[in-house]
UniProtKB/TrEMBL annotation:
Keywords: Membrane, Transmembrane, Transmembrane helix
Keyword hit for Nuclease: no
Coiled-coil blocks: none
Key word Cytoplasm present: no
TM annotation in the entry: 21-39, 59-79, 100-122, 134-158, 165-182, 241-264
Protein name: ABC transporter permease subunit
A GO cellular-component term linked to this record: plasma membrane
Lineage: Archaea, Methanobacteriati, Methanobacteriota, Stenosarchaea group, Halobacteria
UniProt GO molecular function: ABC-type transporter activity
Length: 272
């Protein structure tokens, strides 16, 4: 058998929950509201739209993607449903692929609906929407959401305890929330070790490590390719090439692929 029957059943089960439908509506509303605000300006465009949502989207998408995925495997495993499912002619790949497809569709559909309506509101009645720029913003946002979803799905394969999976998901959310505030702490630690710049800042290699966090990677892609910013530590003319937007795209793709591969390898070798 294939993953498709699992995906169909999983999708029906997921959207049946009231809290999930509320979450989907809220995510879509965030993008619609941003489009309404940006469209009210005579200079409204995709860059304005993306800039207005830059502080909110990483948080909202991170929380939503993690909450959608972190119980995908472990809840069925703890309840015994996973063992029963694998007695049927399904492989573990079928299970993981089906759950990824079903829950990923929920995430992609919520963001896509919100962005399409939001993009239309940006252009009406005074703004303009460049199709290529909008598609770049859409693609970056969806890849960011799927990367966080891949992390949550990997968390779900690492443990047999739903409580531990919950703690892991909460830890990722906290890390995303507070990571931006740790730059000064990292600089002080490196300064104490004699590894900081003469001005007491982060050297380029440390900036790369610090900036590899998914939400910061997403910000660089949006700022570089959508907003068109060419200033700052990462995107300025003096920044090394590996801090730029092109490498950020590769990093975000790695955040998507890496957890999926690692999660599947863990799931395949786990004794249920």
């Amino acid at each position: 058998m294939s993953w498709r029957p699992i995906a169909r059943r999983e999708f029906a089960d997921v959207i049946e929950g009231r809290s999930m439908r509320i979450g989907m509506a809220f995510v879509a509303f965030v993008f619609v509201a941003g489009g309404y605000v940006a469209g009210g300006s005579t200079s409204g465009d995709v860059a304005t739209y993306a800039s207005q949502l830059s502080g909110l989207v990483p948080l909202v998408v991170t929380v939503f993607a993690l909450l959608v995925g972190y119980r995908a495997i472990v809840a069925d495993r703890a309840a015994g449903r996973l063992t029963l499912l694998l007695t049927l002619p399904h492989s573990r790949w079928d299970v993981l692929a089906g759950k990824f497809a079903a829950r990923g569709t929920v995430i992609v559909g919520s963001i896509l609906a919100g962005l399409l309506v939001g993009g239309w509101l940006v252009s009406y009645p005074f703004g303009t929407v460049d199709g290529v720029t909008f598609l770049v913003y859409l693609g970056a946002t969806l890849l960011f959401a799927l990367a966080l979803f891949a992390i949550s799905l990997a968390l779900s394969t690492l443990t047999a305890s739903p409580r531990r999976a919950t703690v892991g998901a909460f830890a990722v959310i906290v890390a995303v929330l507070f990571w931006r505030n740790l730059r000064g702490t990292f600089a002080r630690v490196l300064d104490a070790l004699g590894l900081a710049t003469p001005a007491g800042g982060l050297p380029d290699w440390a900036l790369f490590v610090y900036g590899a966090e998914p939400s910061l990677v997403y910000d660089r892609i949006v700022e570089g390719f959508v907003v068109g910013r060419e200033t700052g530590t990462f995107l300025g003319p003096d920044a090394p090439w590996y801090l730029g937007g092109e490498v950020a795209v590769l990093l975000l793709f790695a955040w998507f692929v890496g957890p999926l591969v690692g999660g599947y390898r863990r799931f395949r070798g786990t004794d249920l």
